[in-house]
Amino acid sequence: MEIYWEECERMEALPPGYSRVRFKRSTGAWVGSDKRVYGPYRESEVAVVETVAARVLEALGAAEVLERGPEPRTPDEIMAGLPEDLRSYLKLAGLDPAGDPTPGVLPGSAESTYMIPVRDEGTGEVLKIVYPWPRTVTGGCRITAVTNKKGESVLVVALAEGGSQPEIGAEEAKPPRELDEFEEPPEVIVRRVYKDTGDPRRALEYAPMIREGLKIITEEKLRKMGYRILRIEEIPREIRVAGLPDFVAVKDGRYVVVEVRPSGRLKKYSSRARIILVTDLEEGGRVEVWGMKELTSPRELIDPSIF
Fold first, then answer.
1. Per-domain residue ranges of the chain
2. 203-209 long-range contacts, CB within 8 A, separation 24+
3. What class is the 5-68 domain?
4. How many CB atoms lie under 10 A from the CB of residue 257?
5. How far apart are the C-alpha atoms of 151 and 94, rounded to whole Å?
6. 257 with 236: CB under 8 angstroms?
7. What is the β-pairing status of strands 37-38 and 30-31?
8. What is the C-alpha separation between 161 and 141, in angstroms, rounded?
9. Three-state SS for 241?
10. Is 241 exposed, middle or buried (0-12, 13-18, 19+ CB in 10 A)?
11. pLDDT tens digits, one per residue of 140-167
12. What per-residue string of b and e applies to 78-103 under the rule 16 or more CB within 10 Å gives b?
């Protein structure tokens, strides 16, 4: 949560979850749950700290609490007070609000938008995301991935710290996106961009949720390979009784069962070491793992005869 602390310490009303304390003795520095560094503090110094920390300092006799701010509202309480479009967006993305949205204008842009503080469930970090997405991704914001409540990676547009350039690699940098590209539903845009460019990374930039974007891209990849995506009622009974996968495709009477499972953890591991996925299947050779490379390059299944 971005708070101007010098002003905050002079404010009459404290932010929810923070308290004003006076230190009884010198205290070293620590990192709060909001990722801010607190301290070091001198004896008799007055400061605003997290209420959780204020309770600990008070119990240790290191500080006295001068004033407590209101208790933080729960995500459900915050969600209930949001406009319908913001509430729908956060529910679709599986993200919890960490505070009230702020209407405003993006740095370096004349566009009006909402800045919504949300919590990255993977890191615990609170960042401000932008909704609706801007006409152009300017230096005032960045495209990044956060982890939602289901453990899935979700692409969002977030405010760049200090108004810096978007934090994306040079190989992923794209020209600014124009408004007309956002007038279609995201799934339509993802499908069209992948068909036009064959680049899954580029297509995923338009997916509100990475898993849903990967499903669309994989469907299109299999169609290019000559497979037909089956409707639910067309899936063979012997597959359906085991539980419905993300989708099933068929070619020349051979079936392919597809499960899409993006994993931020495996992505980090893969840059440092070879990965072995272990399952309780009788034969691991019946499983293929596709990444960005496989979704990009023309290919066939390793051995179609095993399906």
1. 5-68, 75-169, 210-306
2. 204/155, 205/143, 205/155, 205/174, 205/177, 206/181, 207/155, 208/89, 208/92, 208/93, 208/154, 208/155, 209/92, 209/93, 209/94, 209/148, 209/152, 209/153, 209/154, 209/155
3. alpha beta
4. 16
5. 9
6. no
7. antiparallel
8. 8
9. coil
10. exposed
11. 677 788 888 888 888 888 876 544 333 3
12. bbeebeeebeebbeebbbbbbbebee
Alpha carbon distance 76, 148 (integer Å): 15
φ/ψ of residue 284, rounded to 5? -65, -20
Distance separating alpha carbons of residues 202 and 220, to the nearest angstrom: 14
Whether the full predicted model's pTM is greater than 0.70, yes or no, is no
Per-residue model confidence (pLDDT) at position 161: 59
Beta-bridged to residue 64, according to DSSP, are: 22
Tokens of 122: 């993977």
* Alpha helices in the chain, H assignment, sequence order: 5-8, 51-59, 75-80, 84-93, 186-197, 200-204, 210-224, 237-240, 264-270, 292-296
pLDDT (tens digit per residue) in 58-77: 999 999 999 988 887 888 88
The number of angstroms, rounded, from the C-alpha of 275 to the middle of its chain's C-alpha atoms is: 24
Locate 148 and state its tokens: 């939602």
- Number of C-alpha atoms within 13 angstroms, CB side, residue 25? 5
Residue 22 to residue 43: CA distance in whole angstroms: 8
Instruction: Identify any residues that bridge with 251 across adjacent strands, giving them in sequence order.
Output: 254
pLDDT tens-digit profile of 237-288?
888 887 778 889 999 999 999 988 877 777 777 778 888 888 888 888 888 8
Q: Is omega for the bond preceding 236 within 30 degrees of 0, making it cis?
A: no
